[in-house]
Amino acid sequence: MTDEQSLIRASQQGDHAAFECLVREHQRMILSLAYRMTGSWSDAEDLAQESFIQAFRQLDRFRGEARFSSWLYRITVNHCLNWRKRAIRESEIHEEWSQEAAAESPRADYSQQVQEALLKLKPKQRAAIVLTTYEGRNHAEAARLMGCSETTVSWHLFMARAKLKTLLAPLHNPGDAHE
Amino acid sequence: MNNNELDRLLKQASQPEPPAGLTRNLPGRVTARLRHGSSSQSLEMPFRRHAWVWGLATACVILGAFVVGFWRGQQSAFDPGQLADARRYLHETQALFPNQVKAIIFDKNGPHLVLSEKPDVGASLPVFMTVSNAQTAESIITYSGQQINIHGEPYDVLLNGNNEVFLVGKTRVWSKNSRSGWGKTEITAHSMAL
Question: What percent of chain A has pLDDT over 90?
Fold first, then answer.
């Protein structure tokens, strides 16, 4: 039995300390996903907390058929897609970024513009981009995580890319790698 | 722009580092919320805050209504109506603060709720008491197994198998049949078990 399996087993029996170790192990992955989906570390933390708490409460349903990280990831994706404050925060973040853009470095400004463009996508389109482009998942994995078919993921990606190409066109200079 | 160029452009957008302390504190915050049974502290905070305010407001209204009726009958001897009121009141307060109510005290300043910080007050039989002397008069609703203060001294409230109440302190004990050492302090205590 691996360390992770031992921690999962202990957590399933209500051991909060064991679960805290699991949170520590997986928090960067979860926070990163939540940040890409929200564009805010504060909201990413909220979502991460909610996801971990739901995971703890549903641990008895985790049978080990999938990797624990994938199972946790799916819970987080669902939370991100159902995020109630999303619309409000998106408009706030848009405003914050508009105000702060001038004060930031060119590199940060570039990253912010990309993140801002991501936030203009519909949540499922954004999730499809985050999972495939940033997290390196293939369409089948993204479909499992999002709870939909591969065809649907492909459609979300098609729509997302079309929109992003328009939104990010000002940043695109052929031959410029931005590195 | 083709898809590869778009992907490259997206990947070049670096993700900022999380604020200092976020990854250090997150695991502890998650387990703290688990220990306190909070399901959605941050996402539902506005709702929870309002629910808390409404809960307190409702508790105050109930307390106010109860205390008026209670003090109206304060001069008269203990009667079954008071016990019924106390039961109803306890039931309503418990609904607002499940497993947190340790005692409800009525004194000259009005009602006071004694709540546990966590919902860890175990189920036991409720007790209704009055404590008075020449200067003060208090009525207390509490549970068997809880501790109350009488004139600054702590007493364990205990019910025996015959539903008789015992107050057990460090220096003296009170029961219906053992009242010596209490001077002019008058105590009545009744199990609220049906």
Answer: 28
Instruction: Report the range of poorest mean pLDDT among A33-37, A55-59, A83-87, B174-178.
Output: A83-87
Cα dihedral value B66, B67, B73, B78, nearest 10: 80
Interface residue of A114, A115, A135, A157 to substitute, partner B, most B CBs within 10 Å: A114
Q: What is the rounded distance in angstroms from the CA atom of residue A35 to the CA atom of residue A156?
A: 20
The tokens for B114 are 């004694």
Quote the CA–CA distance of A42 and A37 in Å, as a whole number: 12
The dihedral over CA atoms of A138, A139, A140, A145, expressed in degrees to the nearest 10, equals: 90
CB B138 within 8 A of CB B107: yes
- For residues B13 and A110, give the distance between their C-alpha atoms in angstroms, rounded to a whole number: 7
Q: What is the dihedral of CA B144, B149, B153, B159, to 10 degrees?
A: -20
What CA–CA distance (Å, rounded) separates B180 from A114? 81
- Closest chain B residue by Cα to residue A109: B13
In Å, how far are A41, A53, B49, B153 from B26, measured between CA atoms?
Answer: 12, 12, 22, 42
pTM for this entry: 0.52
Of B79, B83, B120, nearest in space to B101 by CA = B120
Amino acid at A133: T
Query: Which segments of chain B are extended strands (E)?
Result: 101-107, 110-115, 126-132, 137-143, 147-150, 153-159, 165-168, 173-175, 186-191
Q: Are residues B7 and A133 in contact, defined by beta-carbon separation less than 8 angstroms?
A: yes
CB atoms within 10 A of CB B161: 5
Residues 6+ apart with CB under 8 A from A171: A110, A113, A114, A178, B9
Task: List CB contacts (< 8 A) between B27 and chain A.
Answer: 20-21, 23-24, 27
Note whether ipTM > 0.85 here.
no
Nearest alpha-carbon partner for A155 in A117, A128, A122: A128
